[in-house]
Amino acid sequence: MSREKPIRVLVAGLGNMGRSHALAYHNNPGFEIVGLVNRSTPALEPELRGYTAHPDFATALADLKPDLCSINTYSDSHADYAVAAFEAGCHVFVEKPLATTVADAERVVAAAEKAGRKLVIGYILRHHPSWVKLIEEARKLGPPYVFRMNLNQQSSGPTWATHKSLMRTTSPIVDCGVHYVDVMCQITDARAVEVRGMGLRLSDEIAADMYNYGHLQVLFEDGSVGWYEAGWGPMISETAFFVKDVMSPKGAVSIVMDPNAKSDDIDTHTKTSVIRLHTAETGPDGKFIRPDQDMRMTGEPGHQALCDLEQAFMLRAIREDLNLDRHMADAVASLRICLAADESVRTGQPVRL
């Protein structure tokens, strides 16, 4: 594999995720960065300062003719950039959410299929050994499931500034929700049939039609139900900010968070500490047959290591011609659910899918 020519990659968007992905390409000999794209001139890590930064994506795409475009810009540009890349003959990695509408997400998938190129969406938890384990243990329990999940972030300073930038286009329950709804969908395999959402604007620093606290409920065809909650900002409570819990008639599997973790620490969002398996089975005396089992997940990858794993998967997808049909369909499905929740927040009505 090392003898193969490196994949020439253009990295668009140099925010938190874009810089992490650029570092992953820089450190992987299977890739060669041909250019960076960002409208402003950001402060870059020393390893990235040798690459030329271009202000305009379309010009850089035409001039540099990369093999792969890595799109880590604001959500409202994802679809147009991805389609342009496919039309130029490139493979595409795009950060989640894939698009800001279901129609745009489907347009991107159609462009990938028409071009015969690979589309990988940034569902980082799919590359995390502990989340893979959580999904595996939950599937063993069997449906119907109750999913209880949240990720609230008490943010201030630069983190709150980032959150306010994200909320120019995307609410927290869409931006973060796609990850955790994707986990629900991987566990149940059932189709979502109804979505309900509620939200509240808790800050005058965001647009009048945006909300920085949201809660969604989703009902699945197999009877499973789930909720996801996300809040961003200086007013958000850190009490029970991280809940990742799956219940079924046979028991429950949960991620148990380090009690000292802080909600705006990016590594906290993926680190799992302990996976606790509870079995509901009782003996003749009505008491539990076995104690809860704690699986300690040692040597977990941090945020940068996860980005490295994600881009290693991108490389495999191209070189080994992996079938990504399910990957793309799942990305559209989780986005459909989160956008339905956003619609429900704004209309006050449940959405049938």
UniProtKB/TrEMBL annotation:
GO MF terms on file? nucleotide binding
Which named protein is this? Oxidoreductase
GFO/IDH/MocA-like oxidoreductase domain: residues covered: 137-232
One Pfam short name: GFO_IDH_MocA
Which parts of the sequence belong to the Gfo/Idh/MocA-like oxidoreductase N-terminal domain? Answer: 7-123
